[in-house]
From TrEMBL:
<feature type="domain" description="Glycosyltransferase 2-like">
    <location>
        <begin position="7"/>
        <end position="151"/>
    </location>
</feature>
<keyword id="KW-0808">Transferase</keyword>
<dbReference type="InterPro" id="IPR029044">
    <property type="entry name" value="Nucleotide-diphossugar_trans"/>
</dbReference>
<dbReference type="Pfam" id="PF00535">
    <property type="entry name" value="Glycos_transf_2"/>
</dbReference>
<dbReference type="GO" id="GO:0016740">
    <property type="term" value="F:transferase activity"/>
</dbReference>
<protein>
    <submittedName>
        <fullName>Glycosyl transferase</fullName>
    </submittedName>
</protein>
<dbReference type="InterPro" id="IPR001173">
    <property type="entry name" value="Glyco_trans_2-like"/>
</dbReference>
Length: 269
């Protein structure tokens, strides 16, 4: 590996996943530092994080309040005293295989215009989950359909990659000002990649790197997370898609709320 990597793990009631997360980070090798930033967990996540071996000098930050994913990542990245050229943002329920980080770093080393790279993600069962997508349009927002980028087992350009696993060139991350704090959860990864693109940075997904992400942990998305998703979708659409985006969000929200009402009375699964 030709350059150092700072690893950032944002946690929230993540005690169950922490031992696996620490083992995964420890196996990466050549990590410069690890920052675990906890968003006001109530399950003693910070205490457990301090007992684990992460494979590099580790700082555990316990926030008194939940800042949201993007703001927590920003705070963690800023807290690194001696920044490395690259920063890996990694969910506690995601892991990179042995040799995977070295390949992602090599991708950035080889292309100075590449600001961010992600990996091919699956659940632990092997079921594919969203890895990289095209930017939303007003039509896709209204239809509530996202278009995935087909990586074909190679390094291919994408509009944005999943925030569960992002390797950023530190210069690019700092240059766009990190994530927009206004997104508490969801769409922050889409927004930052769009802002990076506006500054000339490219994003890619490396389909040769197969990482796992236990997305949703096999459970139906809770109502409060669906509310966060709708709020972030609305914020993104108003910022980037104009009046058509505003209308598209109204259509999408109405469809989702109607579906929730039908599920509540047992007419839809």
């Amino acid at each position: 590996m030709s350059a150092g990597v700072d690893v950032v793990v944002v946690t929230y009631n993540s005690r169950t996943h922490l031992p696996g997360a620490a083992a995964a980070v420890r196996a990466l090798g050549e990590v410069t530092s690890v920052t675990v930033f906890d968003n006001a967990s109530v399950d003693d996540t910070p205490a457990l994080a301090r007992t684990l071996a992460w494979g590099a000098p580790t700082d555990v930050v316990a926030s008194a309040r939940n800042l949201g994913f993007g703001a927590a990542c920003n705070a963690a990245v800023r807290s690194v005293a001696d920044p490395a050229p690259y920063v890996l943002l990694l969910n506690p329920d995601a892991s990179v295989p042995e040799g995977g980080l070295a390949r992602l770093v090599a991708d950035l080393d080889a292309d100075p215009a590449l600001g961010c790279v992600g990996a091919r993600l699956t659940r632990p069962s092997g079921e594919p989950v969203s890895s990289a997508r095209y930017f939303p349009t007003w039509r896709s927002v209204a239809a509530r359909r996202a278009q995935d980028v087909e990586h074909r087992g190679a390094l291919v350009e994408a509009d944005w990659v999943c925030g569960a696993l992002m390797l950023w060139r530190r210069e690019a991350f700092d240059g766009v000002g990190g994530f927009a704090d206004a997104y508490f959860l969801y769409y922050e990864d889409t927004d930052i990649c769009r802002r990076a693109a506006d500054l000339g940075w490219r994003t890619a997904v490396d389909g040769r790197v197969h990482a796992t992400h236990d997305q949703g942990h096999g459970l139906r998305t809770p109502a409060h997370l669906r509310r966060h998703s709708r709020r972030s979708r609305r914020r993104y659409a108003l910022r980037w898609l104009g009046w058509r985006g505003a209308l598209a969000v109204a259509v999408a929200d109405a469809a989702e709320l109607a579906g929730a009402s039908l599920r509540a009375i047992g007419l839809r699964r």
